[in-house]
Amino acid sequence: MKFGITYHEKLKQYDLGPGHPFRGDRFENARKLFEEKGIFKNPDVTILRPKPAKKEDLLLVHEENYVNHIFELAEQGKPYDIETPVSPSILEAALLIVGGSMLVTEMVYRRELKRGISLGGGLHHAGKNYGGGFCLFNDVAIAAQHIRQRLHAKRILIVDYDVHFGNGTSDIFYSDSQVLFISLHQDPRTIYPGTGFVEQVGRGAGEGFNVNVPLPPGTTDNLYLKAVKEIVVPLAREFKPEIILANGGSDPHFADSLGSLALSVQGFFKLA
Ligand SMILES: [Zn+2]
């Protein structure tokens, strides 16, 4: 089975301005790197061209008032908050990212792909009725809801290994037992968004289906991979997911300026 990567030349419009960590050239650079490494020539790799998500897709997760608010901000060219600007071109790219995550998730769920990557995906700080932390729409949560509501998926595991806690995704599925959300992140007392403690375990039917693994600043490969082996793997085995959505984030890397975890490229490789 094949491996899929989404790419669209308009993804680079998810550019939040000069000096912002979310710059559009990340997408071009990724494409160039894939080309240099011959990844696109590999017969097992398919490039997927995402379609923009529709409003009804956004409403699988987000409240209508919130979605309308973001569309209005885009028209007016006003930021959502100080670090999350909105414009027509950012909105266009945000919809392509959501569309890309829905596409790869659906294809993997249908076993048309073995694995897939949604370039630019993992906008995990957006909740039902809020955005922030560079995120407008939660592509991961929308992709999960897409295969549940339209393709009847019943057990979805989301592993979030971004350096920041995925507060939006956690909130969205907090009372839900069909989505197991496991997040490894830097100790929330030391980093945005300031939540993601071990005692946040889910509510009601969702109790036990939200697992937070905060790690101290300076955590290197060994401790990180030990946490994966001793916590994530046994829980995943017990839950028996039909699909795993991995919410990346290259920001646990030691050279990343946003976080203070200290993973190496080798560490990421072992994680994958
Ligand atoms: Zn992050």
Structure explained in plain terms:
This protein has helices at residues 25-36, 55-58, 64-76, 88-109, 139-151, 167-172, 221-239, 265-271; strands at 3-6, 45-48, 115-117, 156-160, 179-186, 210-215, 243-247. It has 272 residues and is of the alpha/beta class. It folds into two domains: 1-152, Arginase, Chain A (3-Layer(aba) Sandwich), CATH 3.40.800; 154-272. The protein has a four-stranded parallel sheet. The protein has a three-stranded parallel sheet with strand order 2-1-3, covered by helices on one side. The chain is globular, with a radius of gyration of 18 Å. The mean pLDDT is 94. The structure holds zinc ion. Zinc ion binds at residues 162-164, 249, 251. Residues 162-164, 249, 251 line the site of zinc ion (ZN).
SSE inventory with pairings:
Blueprint: E1 3-6, H1 25-36, E2 45-48, H2 55-58, H3 64-76, H4 88-109, E3 115-117, H5 139-151, E4 156-160, H6 167-172, E5 179-186, E6 210-215, H7 221-239, E7 243-247, H8 265-271
Parallel strand pairs: 1-2, 1-3, 4-5, 4-7, 5-6
Helix pairs in contact: 3-4, 4-5, 7-8
Task: Write a compact overview of the structure shown.
The chain is α/β, with parallel strands linked by helices. Helix content is 35%, strand content 13%. It has two domains: 1-152, Arginase, Chain A (3-Layer(aba) Sandwich); 154-272.
Note the overall shape: globular
Give, in spatial order, the strands making up the sheet with the most strands.
6-5-4-7
Overall radius of gyration: 18 Å
Any idea what the CATH superfamily of the largest domain is called? Histone deacetylase domain
Q: Main β-sheet, in a few words?
A: 4 strands, parallel
Order of helices and strands: EHEHHHEHEHEEHEH
Total number of domains:
2
Q: List each distinct ligand once.
A: zinc ion
